[in-house]
Amino acid sequence: MTMTAEMTDPTTRPSASSESGVRHLISIGDLDREAMLGIFHLADAFKEVAERPIPRVPALRGKTVATMFFEPSTRTRLSFETAAKRLSADVMSFSASTSSLEKGESLRDTIETIDAMGVDAMVVRHKSSGVPSQVRAWTKASVVNGGDGQHEHPTQALLDCYTIREALLARTPENAPGPEDLRGLRIAIVGDVRHSRVARSDVLAMTALGAEVMLVGPRTLLPPSLDGWPVKATADLDGVLDSLDVIYLLRIQKERAQAALLPSLEEYHRRFGLTRERAAHLDERVLVMHPGPMNRGVEIAPEAADLPSSLITRQVRNGVLVRMAVLFHLLGAGGPLPTTGVGHLEGGVAADA
Description:
Layout: H1 33-50, E1 64-69, H2 75-86, E2 90-95, H3 107-116, E3 121-126, H4 131-135, E4 142-148, H5 154-171, E5 186-190, H6 197-208, E6 212-216, E7 231-234, H7 237-240, E8 246-249, H8 254-258, H9 265-272, H10 276-281, E9 287-289, H11 302-305, H12 312-331, H13 342-348
Parallel strand pairs: 1-2, 1-3, 3-4, 5-6, 5-8, 6-7, 8-9
């Protein structure tokens, strides 16, 4: 999908494993369908941990996870740090604004300094696309992409797909087989797709799991080309609303209106927002999602955010479970899981996961 220069066909991507055997998660393209399902099963196992009075297991005791955030974040950073602590890993928290970068230290020197302290994994977020991939060459640790520029945000896509799957399983009658993936679902990703790393990873993950994905938004905020990718695009939200199983709303940054990519935020809400009127018209089984933080009154009306079918809060909760699963998979079994399930992941994961 030539959505931007950074987004290439996942079948042509290099392996996510280094020659030393260290595993990384830089792109959803590093995982195949079975690997994603394996991570979901691990997340299911960790769900029981979250319900304990002391929500912790010794699975990664003795491991150290460094959160290397070079741009602001609340949800992703706290989610990864909570996930690591629930696995009993030690956490090192790095903030660019209070680091030696402010004194002129290079990014490489910063990474190599942290690496020398003996960390086992680095979660890297950076405003420039490609930085987490480059960091792999500067560290012996596993590298997880916590969001890079307009490129990708793979763990957000994993938690999104996991949350949809969880909602579908909750609707499955007792003793009936539940869905493993997203096959047969129609999902609309609405908003600023062109500049969204979340959208890019979601497209890769959702289509790999069998969903039909529609991109919806103003022409100025849609990808310039969809050649080679199994998605469609439209500027008519009302034209597809009745056919959807999931509506996924992206955050609109105010600078898009200031850059003349939008007439106004009010006009955007009228044409592409989940307004009060659209929410009232929406089938009660349609799942409503948003990666946060929400701009109520722009991409979503306050009433729509609180619909019974809204999964927005559940996405945040499941982010911890999925990131626990990712860290456990990358760093190996340091202790027992709350339930069995490791074999499913290890047996099905691609070599470059």
